[in-house]
Write a sequence for this structure.
């Protein structure tokens, strides 16, 4: 037995024009996500080479591999979930920003009295936090747009990067005395 | 002049205004191809209502809606809660007005956690708001745009919700305020963000209480190391209670229900010890009933198999101004079946068993008028007052639905709620009234039916029941995600009334 009527309901912000505009704005933010992740990936890749201590080197090598995977997920799956394409320019800018962070670390080390690769490690720590925050925002945009795929992709990336952040923090805090007080490499 | 912390904790800077809002209409085809993958289809044919009733969607694409009300000219108002359940993402806190001529406008406000309950009365929109250390009752004059804060003294800033406001035939305003804590003690098992926003928030009793000295030990998630802390009842997180310590009762408490004059003056505390009196309704005899949600089976004070319930607030039938001692309904030490939280029938299958937090308890004001399956999450509700709709005198209750497996390990809890039930409050029985073909939310059982009913109210003529559906929510054993633009307002009408 039919229990329905033929009334037309109103749609709240789901018309094509509003929706398309909001997806374009989300894509603009996703390009920021890509930039921050590319910056972080470049920085952590370069830092692995500067570390001698075998355990920290291994941790960072694994983090660098994850950073590459995460960047690919952002470039592919995240954009695809909103039917938009990433900007290659932002990736290139991100890589440049990663190199700039290395230079910043060198300058801080020079003026702040730290030695060795610790300042690079410190910049990796800050850079991951930056990109993690950008991805967490992407997760919120997925929820706000009613797109579970965006939320799930971003949530997993944030979860991985939160774990990496704990590890990076631990390495930075453990090795600061070696770098600042002893002026030793590690 | 230096601003004290007490001043800073007051909610200030509230702005509100009306604006035009363009909303399109949707064809049946549109409703089967919505751009929100979290709810791609809305189809009334998948909603089950009793024979002789029709169901139709009225609004589609709402973001975290909380309540619905009507004026005397046929306008339907729906509140969207802003930062709600969970707290992010924030979507605009506002009220959407759908006028009888089909035009729409919004009443926008700049509060973070916005309107939770709305009621139209004599040209004013009365709203209960969350956010900050205090919940608020405000009224907004729809003609002049004047906003008045009527109540701004009730401690909030944690887990549970404001109830009401609603009005009785006596012309008085009735409202509630849920507990800050989820389980009787402020703990990280709730959303940690509340601890960051409101580190000083805590429950406040409605009467003097003596504490047992039982504290709850937990990790402090705000600290960089795994600090363990002890927290007592009626204390901010990390503050322990002493055995025999007396906490003074206050009319400005929580887990409580009040009434006042419509301008908020002469506030009278009717009852406390009600964990979450989110749903409130008065019947044709002006008897007050409120919903209460059960304890959760998780974390450091876990309680199992506590039924949801509806309380009859008997003090509301006493003359205004005559209540010298509020009734106590059991929170934080008793389940809704009247048994203590440490009774063997409530021992948890997971989490740390609860201990009693108070000594020398006041007498319990129960029993409950109706007990419901655990974790049904009964929300806003309304009595049928019309023979045109039928079931006159029955209480229609929106059930948001279970948050299992997050808050319960029992598989049978997974499908509790996700419907509107019809309760006979006199004999404590109920029947499902609106649900999907298979019990559960549409996103689980398939189809374009209902997700999570959060409110239901009868139209002023009594002929139609509007059911507000919060929208798509995904719950796992570890987290909960809610999707904006997936809420729906449904309208259910008795066919004879529609034709007549």
């Amino acid at each position: 037995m039919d229990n329905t009527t033929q009334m037309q309901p109103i749609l709240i912000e789901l018309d094509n024009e509003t929706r398309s505009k909001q997806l374009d704005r989300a894509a603009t933010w996703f390009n920021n996500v890509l930039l921050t992740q590319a910056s972080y990936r470049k920085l952590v890749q370069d830092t692995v080479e500067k570390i001698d201590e075998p355990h920290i080197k291994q941790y960072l090598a694994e983090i660098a591999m994850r950073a590459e995977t995460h960047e690919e997920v952002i470039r592919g799956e995240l954009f695809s979930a909103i039917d938009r394409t990433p900007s290659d320019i932002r990736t290139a800018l991100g890589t440049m920003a990663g190199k700039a962070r290395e230079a910043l670390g060198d300058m801080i080390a020079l003026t702040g009295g730290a030695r060795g690769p610790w300042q690079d490690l410190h910049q990796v720590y800050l850079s991951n936090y930056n990109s993690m925050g950008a991805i967490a925002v992407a997760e919120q945009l997925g929820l706000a747009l009613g797109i579970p795929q965006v939320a799930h992709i971003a949530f997993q990336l944030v979860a991985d990067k939160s774990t990496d952040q704990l590890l990076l923090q631990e390495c930075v805090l453990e090795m600061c005395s070696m770098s600042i007080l002893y002026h030793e490499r590690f | 002049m230096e601003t004290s912390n007490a001043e800073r904790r007051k909610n200030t800077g509230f702005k509100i205004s009306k604006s035009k809002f363009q909303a399109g209409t949707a064809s049946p085809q549109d409703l089967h191809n919505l751009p929100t993958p979290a709810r791609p289809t809305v189809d009334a044919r998948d909603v089950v209502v009793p024979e002789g009733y029709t169901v139709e969607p009225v609004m589609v694409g709402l973001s975290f809606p909380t309540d619905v009300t009507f004026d005397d000219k046929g306008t339907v108002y729906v509140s969207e809660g802003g930062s709600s359940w969970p707290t992010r993402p924030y979507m605009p806190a506002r009220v959407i007005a759908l006028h009888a001529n089909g035009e729409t406008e919004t009443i926008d406000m700049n509060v973070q956690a916005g309107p939770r309950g709305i009621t139209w009365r004599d040209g004013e929109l009365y709203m209960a708001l969350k956010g900050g250390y205090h919940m608020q009752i405000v009224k907004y004059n729809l003609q002049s745009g004047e906003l008045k804060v009527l109540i701004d003294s009730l401690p909030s800033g944690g887990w549970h919700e404001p109830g009401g406001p609603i009005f009785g035939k006596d012309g008085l305003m009735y409202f509630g305020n849920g507990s800050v804590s989820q389980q009787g003690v402020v703990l990280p098992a709730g959303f940690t963000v509340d601890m960051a926003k409101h580190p000083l928030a805590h429950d406040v009793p409605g009467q003097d209480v003596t504490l047992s000295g039982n504290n709850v030990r937990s990790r402090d998630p705000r600290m960089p190391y795994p600090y363990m802390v002890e927290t007592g009842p009626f204390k901010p997180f990390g503050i322990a209670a002493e055995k025999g310590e007396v906490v003074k009762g206050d009319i400005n408490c929580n887990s409580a229900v009040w009434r006042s004059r419509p301008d908020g003056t002469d506030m009278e505390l009717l009852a406390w010890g009600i964990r979450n009196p989110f749903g409130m309704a008065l019947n044709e005899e002006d008897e007050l009933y409120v919903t209460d949600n059960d304890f959760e089976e998780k974390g450091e004070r876990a309680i199992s198999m506590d039924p949801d319930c509806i309380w009859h607030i008997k003090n509301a039938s006493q003359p205004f101004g005559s209540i010298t001692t509020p009734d106590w309904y059991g929170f934080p030490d008793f389940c809704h079946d009247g048994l203590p939280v440490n009774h063997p029938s409530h021992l948890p299958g997971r989490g740390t068993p609860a201990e009693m937090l108070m000594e020398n308890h006041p007498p319990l004001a129960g029993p409950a008028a109706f007990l419901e399956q655990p974790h049904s999450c009964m929300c806003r509700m309304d009595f049928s007052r019309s023979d045109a709709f039928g079931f006159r005198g029955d209480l229609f209750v929106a059930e948001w639905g279970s948050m299992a497996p997050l808050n319960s390990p029992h598989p049978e809890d997974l499908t509790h709620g996700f419907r509107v039930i019809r309760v006979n409050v006199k004999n404590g029985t109920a029947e499902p009234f609106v649900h999907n073909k298979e019990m559960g939310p549409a996103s689980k059982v398939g189809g374009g039916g209902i997700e999570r009913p959060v409110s239901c109210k009868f139209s002023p003529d009594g002929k139609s029941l509007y059911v507000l559906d919060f929208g798509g929510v995904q719950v796992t054993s570890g987290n909960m995600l809610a999707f904006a633009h997936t809420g729906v307002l449904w309208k259910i009408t008795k066919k004879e009334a529609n034709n007549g």
User: Anything to note?
Assistant: The radius of gyration of chain A is 21 Å. Residues 22-180 of chain A form a domain with the Ferritin fold (CATH 1.20.1260.10).
